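User: Sequence recovery, please. Input:
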């Protein structure tokens, strides 16, 4: 046991380091560039990537010893095999894991602040997380945007036809607005509103809608803690938003009150159980509890919120949806997104 456990810990420090360097490979576009190159030397790779040769060499050292990139010592050439490149690049349709690795450095930036919270309670506000909205937009592009039309919208019978005809849609906690913008382009007869408290995110979403030349979107800085249900919507979405909330019960009630009598609420949230014992073999357990502790729970606690955390789980989610008044709640899993449940709920 002793040896096996120390091997496990050695593997852990290696994999943690590898995650940091995978993130750098994504941000520097080294994976995208390598995927287009034949086996190449450090010089050739650094020149093509327009990056400092000494840094690229050390990064390649991590990638070779981390079994990501192949190295042929007979000619000092490096190769990213196609079957690995498809999980590490922007261009392929498969899940880009190197984009998700960015969460590790995003979280590591706030380690000192989180340690202060371990001593004194409280939390770390959203504003402390450098690059959060940028990384979130990349992540949800993979789970939400790419699956919207083929997987997510068909969960609500007749919704695509209603969107074609023209309905009012609200996305709460819309972040950089990738989902809203793609839907607005696809369904020009419908009107799409996005609320988020982060000015930076709303600015990015608005800029993207201008680039797309759509005139059926409205992005607004709105705080879900204070916003009132003055307008009615036919379809409301919340992608990875509810568990972060300072007052998630109020947010769910706001959604319920903002829906038309035949309206539908669609909530994407982390696939987990409320019961830790049922998450023991969760394939992303350590990652999700980490992101919960170092972000989702903490941002809520920073304003004396509920601090549900990312691992609030299906049982708690169902209880809260019913408490807000929703009926006919269904919980779905979708093949394109192994991290989330998709809940659909309507009014009685
Ligand atoms: C985890 S992110 C998800 C963003 C987006 N839905 C996506 O999937 O990319 C949660 C979002 O909720 C927003 N948010 C958190 N608290 C909020 C509040 N009180 N009012 C409005 N938005 C809030 C954050 O700014 C952030 O953009």
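Assistant: Recovered sequence (348 residues):
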């Amino acid at each position: 046991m002793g040896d096996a456990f120390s091997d496990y810990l050695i593997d852990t420090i290696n994999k943690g380091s590898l995650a940091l360097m995978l993130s750098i490979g994504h941000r520097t576009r080294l994976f995208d560039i390598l995927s287009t190159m034949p086996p190449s030397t450090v010089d050739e790779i650094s020149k093509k990537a327009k990056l400092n040769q000494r840094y690229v060499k050390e990064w390649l050292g991590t990638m070779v010893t981390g079994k990501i990139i192949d190295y042929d010592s007979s000619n000092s050439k490096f190769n990213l095999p196609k079957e690995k490149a498809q999980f590490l690049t922007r261009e392929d349709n498969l899940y880009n894991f190197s984009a998700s690795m960015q969460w590790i450095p995003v979280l590591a930036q706030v380690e000192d602040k989180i340690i202060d919270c371990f001593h004194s309670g409280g939390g770390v506000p959203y504003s402390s997380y450098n690059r959060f909205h940028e990384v979130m937009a990349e992540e949800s592009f993979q789970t939400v945007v790419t699956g919207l039309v083929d997987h997510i919208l068909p969960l609500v019978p007749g919704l695509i036809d209603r969107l074609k005809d023209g309905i009012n849609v609200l996305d709460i906690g819309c972040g950089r607005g990738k989902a809203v913008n793609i839907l607005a382009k696809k369904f020009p007869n419908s009107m799409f509103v996005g609320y988020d408290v982060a000015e930076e995110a709303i600015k990015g979403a608005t800029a993207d809608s201008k680039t797309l030349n759509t005139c059926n979107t409205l992005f607004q800085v709105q705080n879900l803690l204070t916003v009132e249900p003055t307008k009615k919507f036919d379809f409301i979405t919340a992608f990875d938003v509810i568990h972060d909330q300072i007052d998630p019960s109020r947010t769910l009630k706001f959604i319920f009150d903002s829906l038309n009598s035949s309206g539908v609420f669609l909530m994407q949230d982390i696939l987990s159980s409320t019961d830790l014992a049922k998450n023991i073999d969760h394939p992303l357990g350590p990652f999700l509890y980490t992101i919960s502790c170092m972000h989702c729970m903490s941002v809520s606690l920073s304003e004396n919120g509920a601090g549900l955390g990312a691992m609030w789980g299906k049982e708690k989610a169902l209880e809260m949806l019913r408490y807000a008044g929703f009926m006919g709640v269904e919980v779905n899993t979708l093949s394109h997104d192994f991290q989330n449940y998709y809940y659909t709920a309507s009014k009685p």
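The chain has two domains: 2-89, 106-346.
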